[in-house]
C-alpha cells in the first residue's frame, strides 16, 4: 500500500532551490479551451455558396453600371498634385482639402504607385469595385459567424437575405464604381462588423488577446478618416471596448491604438489646412440642419423601391431568429466572471447587434438632419447597410425537438421561409426597377437627380469613366479651346452659351502678388466652374480651378449657406470676388457686361479685411513651422469665420470704407 506524502514532502515538491534559496513555484495557468468553428458541413457550404453568389451578382451588376462621377474625379486631381510633389491639394500653392475621405485619397495615392502606367480613373474604378464587393462579403461572413454558435450540430442552411436587399437597390450598384469613397466605406463597415462579432464570441480567434484588441481599436478609430460622420460608429465601438476592458493596461492600449492616427492627422489638418474639418464639410456646412429637405431625400429614396417592404419582412424575420436562437453551453464568457455584469453584457452578441443597429439609425438621423444629398440614394446607403447587417444571411434550421416541439419548429421554419421568399421576390423586382423614372435626370425643386443617368445622358456615353469621356459635357470641349487661345493668361467664366466662355484678360505685366504669396507669372489661367472633377482632370495642374460652392475655393467655403439653395450646392460665390482676388483686369471692357465694376472694386476692398487676409494667408502663405503652429492655434477661429457673399455687406461687416469707382463710359 503506497504511503501518503507528508506535509513536508508536499512543501518540498512545491519549491525550487536557487542559490541556496527556495522560491515557491507559480501555478501553471491552464489555457481556456476555445472550440473550433462549430458549423455543420451543410451550414458552412451553404454560407459560402450564398457569399459567392451575392459577390458575383453584386460585382456583375456594378460593372454593368460602371462609371466615375464628376465628384469622383475631384479626388484624382488631388492625387495628381501629390504625385507631382505639390502636396495633398487641389490647386498648387493653395492648401485646400477638397476631399471628404482622407483614407480614400491616400488609398488612391498608393494605388497609383501600384498601378504604374494605368490611368488614375481605371485605378479608382478597380479599387472601388473590389472594395464594394469585399464589404458585402465581410458583412455576410460576420453575420454567419453571429449565428454560428446556435447552429452547432443542427441541420440548417444559410440563406442570403439582407445582402440581397442591399445589392438589389440600384443606387448601391451605381455607387460601387462611382470613384467616390463608397467602396471604402462598405469594406470598412463590413470589416468592423465582422471584427465586432469576433470580439463578442470566442470561436477561432482570441478576442481578449492584445493583438486582436489593438487591431480592433485601430479599425474603430480609423472611422473618422474614412468619413467624418462615421466617428459616431467608431467612437461607439471604442466606448464598448473600454467598458469591457479587464484592466487599465488594456484601456491604454485601446486609447492609443484607436486614437493615435486620427489625432495625428487632425493635428496635421489643423496645421496644414488651418481648419478643424475637411474643406468639403465647411463648404456644405455639415453641422447645419435642413430637416425638411432631409425628409424629402428620404422619401425620394423610398418611393421608387418601396423600401418599407423589406422592413416589414425583415423585422419579424429577425425577431423570429432571435426567439429561436439556441444559447450554446460550450461557449465560455469572453469577460472574466468576476469582472462585472455590465462588462459581460457589453461584450456579447446581443450588444454587438444593438451596436450596428444604433449606428445605422444614427447615420440615418445625421443625414436626414443635414438635408441628405443631391445624388439619389447615395448617403442613405450606409444606414441601410448597417441596419441589414444582423440579417445579411439567415439560418433556416430544421426542427430537432430539443428546444421546442417539432410541430412548433416546423411552424417557425415555414414562417422564416415565407418571409425570406418575400424578400427574394422584392429584391428581384427592385433590381429591375426604373428608379426615379422620368425625373431621374431633371433637376427639379428637390434638387435630387440620378447622377449616373444624368452624366450618361449629358455626355452621350453610357459609361463615362475617364476625364476624356466628359469632354462631350457642355462647355468642356470649349474650355480647352479657350485655354489654347489665351497664351497670355486669362480668367474663364461660364457664359450662357454652352460652346463658349467669357474671358477676363490678365493684367500685363502681372501686378505684384499680395504679401506672403508667390508672385504672379505671365500666362496664368483660372477657370471658375462648378464641375471641378471633369474640369480639373482635363486641364493641366498649372491651371487654377475654382468653384462657386467652396469645395476647392477658400473664399466660397467661408460664405454663409443659402437657406433655399440646392442641397450640396447651397453656397454660391459671385464671380466678382474671383476677379478681385487675382491678376485680372478689373474694369470695362475687360470684364463681362453683366458684371459691375463697382462690385469688383468693393470685393477687392473687402479682401483687405484683416480677418479675411488671415484666413487666406493660412492656406496660401509658404508652409513653415511658424505657419503650421499659427494655423493650429487659430484653426477654431478660421473654421468659424464667415464672409458675406455681397461685397458691400462684407465691407460693412468689416468696418471698411466703400470705394467709389467713376462710372464707366457707355459701351459702343
Shape: elongated
Strand content: 5-15%
Structural class: mainly alpha
Gyration radius, rounded: 30 Å
What's the main sheet like?
4 strands, mixed
Q: State the strand order across the main sheet.
A: 6-5-7-8
Compute the average pLDDT.
88
Figure out the total of helices: 28
The total beta strand count reads 8
Helical coverage, percent range: 40-55%
Distance between the termini: 130 Å
Unreliably modeled segments:
1-39
Name a few traits of the molecule.
668 residues; mainly alpha; four-stranded mixed beta sheet; two-stranded antiparallel sheet; elongated
Q: How would you summarize this macromolecular structure in one to three sentences?
A:
With 668 residues, this protein is mainly alpha-helical.
Can you describe this structure?
- The chain is mainly alpha-helical.
- Helix content is 52%, strand content 5%.
- It contains 28 helices and eight strands.
- It has a four-stranded mixed β-sheet with strand order 6-5-7-8. Strands 1-2 form a two-stranded antiparallel sheet.
- A hairpin with a 2-residue loop joins strand 1 and strand 2.
- Helix 2 packs parallel to helix 6 (162-168) and helix 5 runs parallel beside helix 8.
- It is elongated, with a radius of gyration of 30 Å.
- The termini are far apart.
